[in-house]
Amino acid sequence: MKESLCRFLIRNNISDAPACNCIQFVIQTVFVKNGSKERFSGEEMGSTMKKKLRAPSIAEARVYRELKSAIMGGLFQPGSVLVQEELCDQFRASRTPVRDALTHLQAEGLVLAMPNKGVVVRDFSPKDVHDIYEIRALLESAAAKDAAGRVPRAELEAIIAKASKLNAKRDFSFSLVKQLGTEMHRLIIATSGNLIMKDLLNRMETLIEMSRIPFRGALERLEEINREHIEIAQALLKGEGETAADLMKKHLSRTKEAHLKILMGRSYGWSEAANRR
Predict the structure, then answer these.
(1) Would you call 78 exposed, middle or buried from its count of C-beta atoms within 10 A (0-12, 13-18, 19+)?
(2) Residue 146's closest CA among 208, 197, 180?
(3) What contacts 250, CB < 8 A, 6 or more positions away?
(4) Which of 66, 75, 188, 243 has the fewest CB atoms within 10 Å distance of its CB?
């Protein structure tokens, strides 16, 4: 996987240091074996998963689904300790399906096993968020360039119409803007034709969504995000790949800055300037 991503970066003339550093983040963060420190490639992961693959029980599937929804919905805040006994009561399940659901979520990177603390909801640091947006900017700008002129017109026009309606109504709720943005980003990725990029971004989708939980209150940025979605969709509609790629980079860069501004109010001892050194 690492070699495939390197080839992707070279083919798209991406050779800057932050981009190369992001490769390590993808490999370490997306391909995690049961939340442990053991890291491995996509090929190795597939081999390992085939050996251990088993159908989850009905109870485990339900607990996993409901617990993941609760975490993604912010019911369990980042850094919260998840006590198995309490989860058993809350989700009306025995210890085994709860434990197995936690193991599944740990493998996805949503929760972490902390020494002397137990299982906690993952708390994304500013550096984590910075790296996620850097990866998205690299991959999604290339996807936008590839997808220009290829995305179905009807779907793009529908996105533009819905986003324009939000502008007219001045209705910039997080859920509505996010829904449109997710629809557009997925459409671009699906149309780009790059299977490696599509696989990477699909694997990262949960982490991306999880990292955005603290950003949900940034209402002042939502109007700008909605306008940027329209601009990107219009460039794609016109078949202007370079313009779409540039707009995507700027869109994700601005969103990253707004997101980091929120997180920097918390004490992490990290700064983007320090990260460049």
Answers:
(1) middle
(2) 197
(3) 228
(4) 75
Q: Say which residues have a Cβ less than 8 Å from residue 187's Cβ, sequence separation at least 6.
A: 147, 151, 155, 156, 159
Closest by CA position to 229, among listed 263, 194, 182, 169: 182
Taking only the tens place, the pLDDT of each residue in 194-208 is 888 888 888 888 888
User: Which tokens belong to 102?
Assistant: 């936690």
| 126-276: CATH class | mainly alpha
CATH code for the part of the protein at 57-121: 1.10.10.10
Looking at the DSSP bridge assignments, the partners of residue 113 are: 119
With vertex at residue 248, the alpha carbon angle to CA 147 and CA 267, rounded to the nearest 5 degrees, is 140
Residue ranges matching CATH 1.20.120.530 in the chain: 126-276
Tokens found for residue 96: 């085994």
pTM of the model: 0.71
Kindly report, residue by residue over 114-158, the tens digit of the pLDDT: 998 999 999 888 999 999 999 999 999 999 999 999 999 999 999
